[in-house]
């Protein structure tokens, strides 16, 4: 349900400037441009090679357009939760925070560029709270999208470019975990589940329901495993699922010792099982001393969670 | 005599699926349907197809298509790089293959869910579900996720069926190491091991121990191939390729062909062996030394049988008494192999094969007129026989 009190409180913010225009601390200069180009890997000589730049239609060094916002960034403010809001945007965010919308995430940013900045230009920026959305439900939690627009001008009042910046102020759906809460165990590593595609997803979905299935050709009745889209016997692409009794015998087996893999708790036994229906399947053998596992051993299947993944497992038939 | 491709090949069947924005099925199924349709159009059977070629960008492995369509053995496989540039490249491959007898019927295919699946307009992204990722997913959740594990599963059954023991595998490790001990280029130069060392080494995937497994190595190998006519004028004594072939067996998976009646049969090796012996006119008795792909000790036994040096189940006896060392019936992996020299995916073995023909191996046998060099086991494989030029 929309937060009426909040919406009433934030309505006057829409259309307001953050505050007085921000004036760049430094004029456009070669050193800052060069550092930017180094960091971004921008090798275009019009940004750092005066001689080469002079021969272009720019007639000299120009700043990379995408560097626009860098000129007016105020520098790092030390984190101080008690610092009062210094502009309208901060006031707006504080208002959201008071209502429990403490989360913030930048969602997107759009630039429009009108002209190049040259060495010596001085940028001013005027930022406006342009719009606030209605309440939205997102994966992060419910919240409001806040759109701000910043106009960048040069010393002559000419528009250099503009930036639209959108953030989501949201109520985190789960309270952020306290880093200091010592008794929360780290997540247990899990086994690697199978990717599920057209040709195999149905088999794993059946397993999720607790059923071990074998693929059966609808045309000639041939069983096949692992599943594949065409019958090798008659080339039909029509098939159906047949439940397996889950009984069979060990055709071959190994004991995995090394290297250890998180989620698997080696050593574990892995067997190639001849199902009584005639197909074969690779799966773990559990609850059986390794030295007792042997080729020909009768086994039966159950479907259980191993390492966080639902899998067929086999036990010696009692 | 040089041959050209003029009038050497023809297209005899075509097939395709419908074209849509959302096929509703896998890349693999699209490939199967198109290949199947082309087979029908040509009026041949799936089992007639013995060559497959596609784009390296294709998401569907040839052997997955082969299994699904019921295509059996293959003697020619290739992939052509660089996107759409491969389109006539695959036809070129097919033409060369049929012109040279490498295959009789080659299917060229290309499948893509280019709108509903991986859109090229999206650029490069992860999380693709391919026939290959699904293939591995039948094994990875259980923990069967390393080459050692896949080979161990086949080895266990082979040991059960033939009475081969871990001590027999140890013999391969020890004999191979002997060759590395005298090879200054080998990782295990001057570091011999004993049968007891092998038996005491830790279990990696039971029944395979540490010393049953190859090295992991940084390195590279390369070789140059030219015509025999040119070879005569060059600096080195040429190693003549007497026979060379590829092979993929029916019901082939990559490393996990667990669904054949006999999982230890490895028919792909027989397909390769038959071709190279037929091409060269040689028999196993003519082979003086062998470079057998030895990612694991057990696969050396498999190959001794598959390439005809002994009968099924007899490799455990063949490797005893120094028989695969210099001075024995068949010196094997005279460089120390991938178990003890280096693991360069078989290519260090190619170079050793050439040295054996030149007579420059550090472990040069008295006679090495014909040398067998083999490739990976458990996958579609390949091999060649090297000989001397007259």
Q: Secondary-structure map with pairings?
A:
The complex is a heterodimer of chains A (318) and B (390).
Chain A: H1 4-10, E1 22-23, H2 30-40, H3 50-54, H4 88-98, E2 103-113, E3 124-132, E4 136-138, E5 141-153, E6 159-170, H5 201-208, E7 213-217, E8 223-224, E9 239-243, E10 247-256, E11 268-275, E12 280-285, E13 298-306, E14 309-316
Parallel strand pairs in A: 12-14
Antiparallel strand pairs in A: 1-3, 2-6, 3-5, 4-5, 5-6, 7-8, 7-9, 10-11, 10-13, 11-12, 13-14
Chain B: H1 27-42, E1 51-55, H2 62-69, E2 76-80, H3 87-100, E3 106-108, H4 131-137, H5 147-162, H6 166-181, H7 195-200, E4 203-206, E5 208-209, H8 228-231, E6 239-247, H9 267-280, E7 289-291, H10 297-306, H11 315-318, H12 337-341, H13 347-358, E8 371-374, E9 381-388
Parallel strand pairs in B: 1-2, 1-3, 7-8
Antiparallel strand pairs in B: 4-5, 6-9, 8-9
Helix pairs in contact in B: 1-2, 6-10
Describe, in plain words, how this protein is organized in 3D.
Chain A is of the alpha+beta class and 318 residues long. Chain A contains 5 helices and 14 strands. In chain A, a hairpin with a 2-residue loop joins β4 and β5. In chain A, 26% of the residues are buried. By secondary structure, chain B is α/β, with parallel strands linked by helices. Chain B has one domain: Thiolase/Chalcone synthase (Peroxisomal Thiolase, Chain A, domain 1), CATH 3.40.47.10. In chain B, the strands form 3 sheets. A 4-stranded mixed beta sheet of chain B has the order 6-9-8-7, sandwiched between helices. In chain B, β1, α2 and β2 form a beta-alpha-beta unit. Chain B is globular and about 65 Å long. The two termini of chain B are 17 Å apart. Classes of the chains: A alpha+beta (318), B alpha/beta (390). At the A-B interface, β10, β11 and β12 of A face α1, α2, α4, α5 and β4 of B. β10 of chain A pairs antiparallel with β4 of chain B.
């Amino acid at each position: 349900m929309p937060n009426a009190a909040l919406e009433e409180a934030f309505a006057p913010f829409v259309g307001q400037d953050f505050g007085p225009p921000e004036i760049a601390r430094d004029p456009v200069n070669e050193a800052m441009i060069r550092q930017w180009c180094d960091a971004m890997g921008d090798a275009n000589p019009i940004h750092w090679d005066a001689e080469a730049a002079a021969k272009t239609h720019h007639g000299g060094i120009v700043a990379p357009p995408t560097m626009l916002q860098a000129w007016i960034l105020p520098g790092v403010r030390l984190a101080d939760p008690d610092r009062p809001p210094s502009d309208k945007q901060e006031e707006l965010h504080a208002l959201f925070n008071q209502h429990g919308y403490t989360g913030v995430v930048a969602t997107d940013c759009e630039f429009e560029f009108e002209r190049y900045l040259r060495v010596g230009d001085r940028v001013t920026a005027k930022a406006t709270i342009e719009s606030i959305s209605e309440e939205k439900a997102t994966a992060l939690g419910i919240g409001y999208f806040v759109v701000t627009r910043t106009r960048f001008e040069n010393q002559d009042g000419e528009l250099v470019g503009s930036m639209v910046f959108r953030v989501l102020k949201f109520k985190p759906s789960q309270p952020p975990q306290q880093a200091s809460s010592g008794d929360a165990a780290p997540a247990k590593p899990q086994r690697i589940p199978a990717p599920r595609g057209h040709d195999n997803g149905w088999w794993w979905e059946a397993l999720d329901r607790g059923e071990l299935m074998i693929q059966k050709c609808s045309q000639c009745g041939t069983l096949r495993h692992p599943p594949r889209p065409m019958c090798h016997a008659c080339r039909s692409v029509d098939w159906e699922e047949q439940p397996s009794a889950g009984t069979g015998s060990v055709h071959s087996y190994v004991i995995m010792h090394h290297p250890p893999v998180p989620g698997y708790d080696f050593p574990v036994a892995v067997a190639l099982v001849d199902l009584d229906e005639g197909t074969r399947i690779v799966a773990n053998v559990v609850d059986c001393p390794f030295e007792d596992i042997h080729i020909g051993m009768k086994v039966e299947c159950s479907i259980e969670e191993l390492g966080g993944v639902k899998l067929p497992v086999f036990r010696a038939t009692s | 005599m040089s041959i050209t491709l003029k009038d050497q090949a023809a297209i005899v069947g075509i097939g395709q699926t419908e074209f849509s924005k959302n096929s509703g099925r896998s890349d693999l199924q699209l490939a199967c349907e198109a290949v199947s349709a082309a087979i029908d159009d040509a009026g041949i059977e799936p089992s007639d197809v013995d060559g497959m070629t596609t784009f390296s960008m294709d998401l569907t492995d040839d052997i997955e298509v082969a299994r699904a369509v019921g295509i059996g053995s293959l003697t020619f496989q290739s992939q052509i790089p660089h996107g759409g540039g491969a389109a006539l490249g695959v036809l070129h491959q097919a033409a060369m293959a049929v012109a040279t007898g490498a295959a009789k019927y080659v299917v060229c295919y290309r499948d893509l869910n280019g709108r509903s699946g991986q859109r090229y307009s999206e650029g490069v992204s992860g999380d693709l579900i391919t026939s290959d990722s699904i293939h591995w997913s039948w094994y990875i959740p259980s923990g069967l996720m390393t080459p050692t594990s896949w080979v161990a599963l086949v080895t266990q059954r082979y040991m059960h069926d033939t009475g081969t023991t871990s001590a027999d595998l140890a013999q391969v490790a020890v004999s191979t190491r002997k060759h590395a001990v005298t090879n200054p280029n080998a990782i295990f130069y001057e570091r011999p091991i004993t049968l007891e060392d092998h038996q005491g080494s830790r279990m990696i995937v039971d029944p395979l121990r540490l010393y049953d497994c190859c090295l992991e190595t940084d390195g590279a190998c390369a070789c140059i191939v030219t015509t025999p006519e040119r070879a005569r004028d060059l600096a080195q004594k040429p190693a003549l390729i007497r026979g060379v072939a590829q092979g993929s067996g029916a019901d082939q998976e990559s490393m996990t062909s667990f669904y054949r009646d006999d999982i230890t049969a490895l028919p792909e090796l027989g397909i390769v062996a038959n071709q190279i012996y037929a091409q060269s006119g040689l028999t196993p008795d003519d082979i003086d030394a062998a470079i057998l792909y030895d990612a694991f000790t057990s696969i050396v036994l498999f190959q001794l049988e598959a390439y005809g040096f002994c009968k099924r189940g007899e490799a455990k006896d063949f490797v005893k008494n120094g028989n695969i060392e210099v001075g024995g019936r068949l010196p094997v992996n005279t460089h120390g192999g991938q178990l003890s020299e280096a693991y360069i995916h078989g290519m260090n073995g190619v170079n050793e094969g050439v040295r054996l023909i030149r007579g420059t191996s550090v472990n040069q046998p008295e006679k090495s007129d014909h040398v067998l060099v083999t490739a990976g086991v458990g996958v579609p494989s390949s091999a060649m026989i090297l000989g001397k030029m007259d």
